[in-house]
Amino acid sequence: MCNTYTLKKPHGGMMGIPKPLKPLLEKLDHTLIRPTVPAPVLLEDEARMMRWGFQRPWAKTINNTRTDKLDSPVWKKAFETRRCLIPMAGFYEFSGPAGKKQAHLFQAMEGAGDEWLWAAGIWEPNEELGECFSMLMRDSAGTVKSIHDRMPVLVPERWHARWLAGEDKAEFPGVALKAENADNPLKHSKRKDGDKHPEPVQPELFGGGG
What is the average per-residue pLDDT within 116-134? Predict the structure, then answer.
């Protein structure tokens, strides 16, 4: 499942980012996004900062939503009425045994169109945590398939308006990705309070394995 993504472009810059998102990205003091960390998301008419991960009594953080479970009461209302797009410069997956895991960074293929990746997301209000978002997951394909069995639902730019308006069912043509081995981004990653990012709690019944 995708538990780590980055907002840092290899060569910097904000090309391809809609204007509403630019002020949020420019003010961020972190570019590595993990569950429970705030990140910018795009709605139909504005951009907002939200926490990554829904919270339920049985789970502290449910950060991913499987597309085959969208009819579940956990996701149904948000999928039907509250959609968002999650900008990513790239996302990470990991392979190998514990303690020796290899990080793999997936980014948009150069020359394929969009410079940024846009993951399909849903969101909900939370009285304690504020607004929270979750990332949709599908069966993996292409370069991701050999590393992990699931990947984010990536929305091509021409489909953005339809997705946000609730006109699509999370089924989109593939986005060309390139993959490269990368240094483990979690080795020195800490939150503002000095604590390491927590491992997510993602029950299989409600979206785990995504």
Answer: 95
**Annotated domain spans of the chain:** 4-206
**CB-based contacts of 19: which residues, under 8 Å, 6+ apart?**
none
Residue at token pair 């948000």: 78
CB atoms within 10 A of CB 43: 16
Distance linking the first and last C-alpha atoms of the chain: 4
Predicted TM-score (pTM) of the model is 0.86
Task: Out of 5-9, 56-60, 170-174, give the one with best mean pLDDT.
Answer: 5-9
> In the structure encoding, which two tokens stand for residue 139, read together?
């069966």
**41 and 86 Cβ atoms separated by less than 8 Å:** yes
Q: What pLDDT, in 10s, does the model give residues 137-160?
A: 999 888 898 899 899 999 998 899
CATH class of 4-206: alpha beta
Q: Is the dihedral of CA 141, 146, 150, 156 positive or negative?
A: negative
By the 8 A CB rule, do 3 and 32 touch? no
